[in-house]
């Protein structure tokens, strides 16, 4: 059908993408005015508060530019953060066009460029738009010129819109209809004549007949879970017709299912009779294991069919252990994580036990933001207070001739033959006045291959660094030194040899596993000294002296001592010979020596919580 337009809105965080989507919903009368609320497609309260899109949100809109014309506009509102890059890449393959949105007050930023390159790589028709023109920023013309230069088009082709007032939205809708192509012949299952032009079916019956003859195929770009319908796959149909009651298969997962329901997003789920090639909708699979639905997988007629290109298994890169603040909340924490996984298939977790904090769960995340979101949702949605370990990454370790993957610091060997650590390519876009401050970050983080180039009215700083450094407050440091004007984008690349080591903390000659970390070799002494100094301030005194030590490869690199708690054993004596006091003091000393050899220090959970704070 020539009247379908599938597109996404892509932008840097907080550039007004969700607010603009609200105006599109209003202009097409998809949502009644009485039901409308700010950031309508962002269903979580956390999304509205942070001003970012966390969960992908598709919606089907019907648009009539003039009498006798009707178009179906399928919009996918995507997350803008780099942590969710794979999900966004799958959404880009499900559409034919993209609206590249730029905040007129802030200009082009790092993720704007990353989104542009991804959309260009996917072969999408890209429409440039500058948002927040109602604020009349003085640099608006410069931003329009920069965006036109990036898209290699005339400044007149850049649309001026306001997500707040709705100005420019009608022109945006007309431009989407005019410049975004309908689903291609290959994806639509249409005839192609000798001249290479698509011949569209003359009737709905003919369209259904031809689609039925093609193999059923649909790309899964997101999912959610429903207690009654099971796992619901968000799909873009590329071939065949999907109907309720028919058998289908998940190719990569190797699972079969019976379709319980199909439908569209308005933006709530609305059942329909069938989904045809080119449609974006949902398929209720009835599968009760949400992990079986994987983003990027292909739904088809038979198991063993062809998977649409680009599929990858979700790869957690940041690992954090969660422990309930109260031991009695362990089962509640397990149920909460299971419920979160129903709507967040990238979340992975397994049981974990700590000598200090008891039973918990080791969780894998797509990045630091993903971890922070899950941690906050546990508090907001389930009322659970948790303690989490230091965020860590995976390392590939070689011992002898064998390689193994290490996810937890306590499993890292003392003397590995070789270590490979995950690396990222980092792009920082900053105003020229902050360039010197940004470059000084290399003194604190292990940045290499630093290159700078001028981009419009800003400077792009490209570098390479370990992922472990990136999750160690790199973003916070960047925002602090640039006053929030610098922006960041990163991309995971291949692993590289790393000069890292295991740092262990000993209290009274016993290793505390929960405080073990993997750190850079050149930072081990500083990190170890900082840790034992903080422990000295936090741990209570005992009847014996406590040695606090930081150890690397069997060598003590830092030490502090908490002196024994003094008890006046001679206070009740008065007068008499001094030998009576000496006798009591020697007896006390012998007791302390015995305690020092056999005594154990229990690390209170409160102390552990303080140590894990930034």
TrEMBL record:
SUPFAM superfamilies from the UniProt entry: EF-G C-terminal domain-like (SSF54980), P-loop containing nucleoside triphosphate hydrolases (SSF52540), Translation proteins (SSF50447)
A molecular function GO annotation: translation elongation factor activity
Start and end residues of each Tr-type G domain: 2-184
InterPro entries attached to this UniProt entry: EF-4, EF-G-like_DII, EFG_II, EFG_III/V, EFG_V-like, G_TR_CS, LepA_C_sf, LepA_CTD
Keyword Kinase on entry: no
GO cellular component terms given for this protein: plasma membrane
Gene3D superfamilies named among the record's database cross-references: 3.30.70.240, Elongation factor 4, C-terminal domain, Elongation Factor G (Translational Gtpase), domain 3, P-loop containing nucleotide triphosphate hydrolases, Translation factors
Superkingdom as given in the UniProt entry: Bacteria
One Pfam family recorded for the sequence: EF-G_D2
Localization of this protein: Cell membrane
Keyword annotations: Cell membrane, GTP-binding, Hydrolase, Membrane, Nucleotide-binding, Protein biosynthesis
Residue sites binding GTP per the record: 14-19, 131-134
Catalytic activity: GTP + H2O = GDP + phosphate + H(+)
Residues of the signal peptide: none
E.C. number(s) listed in UniProt: 3.6.5.n1
Family note: Belongs to the TRAFAC class translation factor GTPase superfamily. Classic translation factor GTPase family. LepA subfamily.
NCBIfam families: small_GTP
Database matches in PANTHER family: TRANSLATION FACTOR GUF1 HOMOLOG, CHLOROPLASTIC (PTHR43512:SF4), TRANSLATION FACTOR GUF1-RELATED (PTHR43512)
Protein name: Elongation factor 4
Species whose genome carries this gene: Candidatus Liptonbacteria bacterium RIFCSPLOWO2_12_FULL_60_15
